[in-house]
Amino acid sequence: MADQKQQFTKVNQLRPLDTGLNLNVKVINAKTVAQRGRIQGRFAECLVGDETGIIIFAARNDQVDLAKEGNTLVLTNARIDMFKGSMRLAVDRSGRVEVGEPASFSVEESNNLSLIEFERLDVVV
């Protein structure tokens, strides 16, 4: 099982509520967000992307230190969360965020998947 090569997903292939994603992305910018309420820890919204597009990555706690502008991140077992109708990339405890080799690609900034608004439809059968 250790010999299996991970399948990496491109940003333009992401869909709402996807899970178990592996991505190789470059951090375009990162800003720390002050949290309100009872939630403990640090939180940053980072714009990350690859050669197919960009998306917002919600970095939490130790992930904030790794998500610095210009770093290339390897996200393992990531998921797509929905926030106010738009997609956000996140990695919880079951996943990993690591700083990878510097990106050999240029980021396609004109395709921002976080700007696409989705509407939830409940179908009753």
Automatic annotation (TrEMBL):
Stated name of the protein: Single-stranded DNA binding protein Ssb-like OB fold domain-containing protein
UniProt cross-references to Gene3D superfamilies, sorted A to Z: Nucleic acid-binding proteins
Pfam family, one: OB_Ssb-like
Residues annotated as domain Single-stranded DNA binding protein Ssb-like OB fold: 14-99
